[in-house]
Specification:
By secondary structure, the protein is an alpha+beta fold. The protein has one domain. The chain is built from 2 helices and 7 strands; from the N terminus they run ββαβββββα. The strands form 3 sheets. It has a 3-stranded antiparallel sheet, with no helix packed on it. A two-stranded antiparallel sheet has the order 4-5. The longest helix is centred in the middle third of the chain and has 16 residues. The radius of gyration is 14 Å and the shape is globular.
Length: about 90
Amino acid sequence: MFEHKTKDNTTMIPVIFPNTLIHKDVAEAITEFHKKKYNADIKAVSAGEYNAQTGFAFGKSESLGLSSGKDDTQVINIIDYFPFKKE
């Protein structure tokens, strides 16, 4: 989970990716891209795993030294990942 702070707001941004990728590598790539594209800082504040079947975030990232946050499950599950899906 990334945190993007502005003077007026804090936005939590979940990033879900396959276990074959390393948390630290993904975090570095996203942080660098965000800085170049938006000229703004973003930082990883929690990391772990997400079980799509149960809908729960859990565990920790050894490479980042971060654990799943207490609000990660709620942040991940509240986002509409398919806003243009036809029923």
